[in-house]
Design brief:
This protein has 5 domains: 3-86, DnaA, N-terminal domain (GMP Synthetase, Chain A, domain 3), CATH 3.30.300.180; 123-199 and 215-220, no CATH class; 228-308, no CATH class; 315-446, no CATH class; 513-634, no CATH class. Helices cover 41% and strands 9% of the residues. A hairpin with a 5-residue loop joins strand 6 (203-205) and strand 7 (211-213). Helix 11 crosses helix 12.
Length: 640
């Protein structure tokens, strides 16, 4: 194989890996057109289409690409990025020894070191509801230890058990007791497997002449298995294509062609198969039998990776696992609930938006299921200010604080277990700047370091339009009533301050990005960034329309999504009908929006416009999310 064929083979494998891990838009914009110019002993040079794409890959994807190329080549390689449109490669400075001394660290960063994180698949949220939080934390400990073994130069040396326990957030006694339980062993099937039989004891003679027990060997599956329900749903979908006459390769390709892998995980109503599959590879191997080939295995691996990557990644700071859980005496279930809540809240670094709130649509029942429990009263007790006095777990109120509903609620929702509840989540570790005081989830400093009551209380949360958040049935959220003892407000970049009334304006004569960003209270730094690169106002309008359309898959934040797309590429617009609609005069677009029903079961008005049919095709005939579009583009102006 010559050099050109080698470069092409490396490029194809790299693109296949990145396509499975990245959103489609990012892959199409930045990754699809890369080329491998050199792949030799001195390193690998990756050429991008533009200098902008080179900067994006180098800033955001260098570490991931480094890991993939190391696995492809079987050695540690150096990579560099160049832009094809520049015509010349950037000169590389000669490597010289430098001495670096880090100074001016914040005390918080010096203690917590937020860059040190454990990264696991977000699919563990689904898997945790089946196997429970204890098994999840055990798997995280083994998973991190396996990564340490993989990174070590000498992988033949055994690890001490304390290195596994360090990231499992479980004490030494509980660690060995759990591993010996038959129930935990069953839950860890397909995740952590003990190779040696439990009753077998093997010894060897050490240097001191005395017998020493040989280390217990475990096999750790670096990619988590599917839940039993998800595996059954995927197998039924695969079996359905096989019964239609497709070959196994064709059936796997049909499943890979599904836009959203979550659609494959819908539970099936038929009875259980009596078979348990841990992965798509097991299903393909079972169906193929002796004819199982490498091509089928590759397709099965791609499908399994798409499924387990559909919920992204969960980032858990080392400090939270090794220090916070122990200091706050959190049980495995409490620690996992905080981890999941932080992941659902999410800090969006691209848009500058800090989403410190998370809504559990089914309230305590949903929170209990995330912990692998069916007792919602346990969650209710954890969030009670008096729970700490029971000494049966940690103080969860330091991490999750329920937000009060509007005082204008005409009645209280009596569905205690299943009513929607919104919490503010403490995203940072509970440390003050000097590492002494402990801030609560609302940011208030809790000065009672003697172990007194740490309960914090906050007011209700205002939604994007300045009103109160509503639950699934349209009523205001109702929660346990606590008096307000703080006047702090934390307003995100895409959310208006509570109580602020936005001025209603007529449709402008043309689109101006500065006005659109200003009226939506976008962070000043983000406004300055977009205006400096002369981002397109029409692109902004097109992405807002796309985010509110049925094709987007019900994106929760149209404004945040539109801003993130502009920051990726200031001039790129949404394709198809959304580009046409964005090119319309604002008054015409407002008329089309007003023709759509603003409430369920409302008869739509007749729209007389050349693009009326394309409007219905792209935005839907009964799309109630257009109220958010009117709010973003026209400050709520319309026929109410």
């Amino acid at each position: 194989m010559n050099t050109e064929q080698t470069n092409q083979a490396v490029r194809e494998v790299l693109l296949a890996q990145l396509k499975a891990d990245l959103p489609r838009a990012q892959f199409e914009n930045w990754v699809r057109d890369i080329e491998i110019q050199t792949a030799g002993q001195d390193g690998i040079t990756i050429a991008t289409r533009t200098a902008f794409a080179r900067e994006w890959l180098e800033a955001r994807m260098k570490d991931k690409i480094q890991i993939i190329l190391n696995a492809i080549t079987g050695r540690s390689v150096s990579i560099r990025f160049v832009a094809r449109d520049s015509g010349v490669e950037e000169p590389q400075a000669a490597e010289e020894e430098v001495g670096i001394e880090p100074v001016q660290w914040l005390d918080y960063d010096r203690i917590v070191q937020p860059h040190r994180q454990v990264v696991v698949k977000g699919y563990l949220r689904r898997l945790g509801m089946e196997i429970g939080p204890k098994a999840v934390w055990l798997y995280i400990g083994f998973h991190q230890a396996a990564w340490a073994m993989h990174a070590a130069e000498n992988q033949s040396l055994p690890l001490f058990s304390r290195q596994v326990m360090r990231f499992s957030s479980i004490s030494s006694g509980a660690f060995w007791r759990l591993l010996a339980q038959a129930g935990i062993q069953s839950q860890l099937d397909g995740l952590v497997q003990r190779i040696d039989p439990p009753a077998q004891r093997t010894y060897h003679r050490g240097r001191d002449g005395r017998p020493h027990r040989i280390p217990i060997r475990y096999r750790v599956f670096m990619t988590p298995r599917l839940t039993r329900a998800d595996a059954q749903a995927v197998y039924f979908a695969l079996k359905n294509f096989l019964e239609q006459g497709r070959s196994l390769s064709q059936a796997l390709q049909e499943l890979l062609a599904v836009d959203d892998p979550v659609e494959l995980l819908r539970p099936v109503e038929s009875s259980s198969l009596g078979l348990q599959f841990n992965s798509v590879m097991d299903m393909a191997r079972f169906e193929a039998g002796s004819s199982y080939s490498s091509d089928v295995d590759h397709l099965a691996q791609e499908l399994h990776r798409r499924i387990v990557n559909c919920l992204g990644d969960i980032h858990i700071p080392h400090y939270f696992i090794t220090e916070t859980i122990r200091k706050y005496n959190l049980t495995p279930a409490q620690a996992w609930l905080v981890t999941v809540a932080r992941d659902m809240a999410y800090l969006n670094a691209r848009t500058g938006e800090r989403r410190e709130t998370v809504t559990f649509r089914n309230g305590y029942l949903e929170m209990a299921r995330l912990c692998g429990s069916g007792r919602y009263k346990t969650i209710q007790a954890w969030l009670n200010p008096q729970w700490k006095t029971q000494k049966r777990g940690g103080d969860l109120c330091s991490f999750l604080v329920e937000l009060e509903s509007s005082p204008a609620t005409p009645y209280l929702d009596l569905r205690v277990e299943s009513m929607a509840r919104t919490f503010r989540v403490l995203l940072d570790e509970p440390l003050d700047a000097d590492g002494s005081n402990m801030p609560g989830a609302d940011g208030a400093i809790l000065a009672d370091a003697d172990g007194g009551n740490r309960q914090t209380r906050m007011g209700f949360l205002a939604d994007a339009g300045g009103g109160d958040m509503a639950d699934a049935n349209g009523t205001d959220l109702s929660s346990l009533k606590h008096p307000l003892n703080t006047i702090k407000k934390n307003t995100s970049t895409t959310q208006h301050a509570h109580g602020a009334k936005r001025p209603e304006q007529a449709a402008p004569p043309h689109w101006e990005l500065k006005r659109l960003l200003s009226q939506n209270d976008v962070h000043p730094k983000v406004q300055k960034e977009l205006l400096e690169v002369q981002a397109s106002a029409h692109a902004f309008v097109s992405w807002v329309l796309y985010a509110a359309s049925p094709r987007s898959g019900q994106l929760a934040d149209p404004l945040g999504y539109a801003i993130s797309r502009l920051r990726e590429h200031p001039l790129r617009e949404a394709r198809g009908v959304f580009r046409k609609l964005a090119d319309l005069p604002p008054c015409d677009l407002l008329a089309l929006i007003n023709s759509a029903p603003s409430k369920p079961y409302q008869i739509p008005a007749q729209a007389v416009h050349p693009l009326a049919s394309e409007w219905i095709q792209g935005m839907g005939a009964g799309n109630t999310r257009l109220a958010a579009v009117r709010e973003i583009l026209f400050c709520g102006e319309g026929d109410e």
